[in-house]
Known about the structure:
Structural class: mainly alpha
Number of domains: 2
Low-confidence stretches: 165-183
Distance between the termini: 76 Å
Largest sheet: 3 strands, mixed
Radius of gyration: 25 Å
Order of helices and strands: HHHHHEEHEH
Strand order of the largest sheet: 1-2-3
Mean pLDDT: 83
Strand content: 5-15%
Amino acid sequence: MTMNSSDFQAKTEQIERLVQRVSALTDDEARTTALELLQSLMDLHGAVLTRVVELLANSGEAGRSSLAKLGSDPLVCGLLVLYGVHPVNLPDRVAQALEKVRPQLRKQGGSVELTGVADGVVTVKLQSSGQGCGSSPDALKLTIQQAILEAAPEVVQIVSEGATSATSGFVPLDRLQSARKEEKKYEESAA
Length: 191
């Protein structure tokens, strides 16, 4: 079965809902048994994933290369994070994600600088020249947010500092047209 990022997200949300339902069971024995079963499965999967990561990390360059590919895959990344065995730490994954989108940001007339990662909160300094296709601060923030969350799904908040557009010489066409209409009305009333 092939699964994409949105399928993965949907499955994790479904699991969360089911865990909440199990936790709300009024039958103590059923609730305890179901939660123990879930925890046992999580422990087993965690131990196996830990071992897979160890084996790949200790298998020379080919193993480390395979591990890097697995760690950068959005689906596998989420699973490795869930079990706490991702081979790349959070600050490094965030920095790599930003490095990956820098060319796109430059095309959009923006730039980003990572200023901090702590307790699941990523802080970035965003600059926008207001020029380039998709150059609004909101568009730049969305590009950055998508890149960070793909590489680091455990991030709970992304704080953008300095995300205002620099002024540019661009004047929207509709503003020019309405200014011209006002000018004509003035000329007509003065005549």
